Recover the amino acids of this structure.
């Protein structure tokens, strides 16, 4: 890819990120549970319940549906979730969930 094409693509990406931010949407895949609840149309309580179950399983070395670093993480004192990845799991019917 030519240098000029790369520059044009970078400019377009920056413009899209500006538009996304102006609309109040996150530009990072990692958002707070409250923001994720709005994005994927569920409640913060549901998301936090999923995180708590996943953390309990992770601490006990038990398999779980949610994976630390893929679906959720802790940034300092705050939980963050990847809404896109989380949605793929939490809306599966119980019989189709991995664990």
């Amino acid at each position: 890819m030519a240098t000029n094409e790369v520059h044009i693509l970078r400019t377009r990406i920056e413009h899209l990120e500006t538009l996304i931010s102006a609309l109040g949407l996150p530009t990072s895949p990692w958002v707070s549970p409250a923001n994720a609840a709005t994005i994927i149309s569920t409640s913060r309580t549901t998301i936090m319940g999923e995180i708590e179950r996943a953390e309990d399983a992770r601490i006990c070395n038990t398999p779980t549906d949610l994976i630390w670093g893929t679906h959720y993480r802790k940034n300092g004192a705050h939980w963050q979730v990847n809404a896109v990845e989380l949605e793929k799991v939490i809306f599966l019917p119980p019989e189709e969930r991995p664990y």
User: Anything to note?
Assistant: The CA atoms of residues 5 and 46 lie 44 Å apart. The chain has a mean pLDDT of 91. Helices lie at 3-22, 33-40, 44-59, 83-90. The chain is about 55% helix and 10% strand.
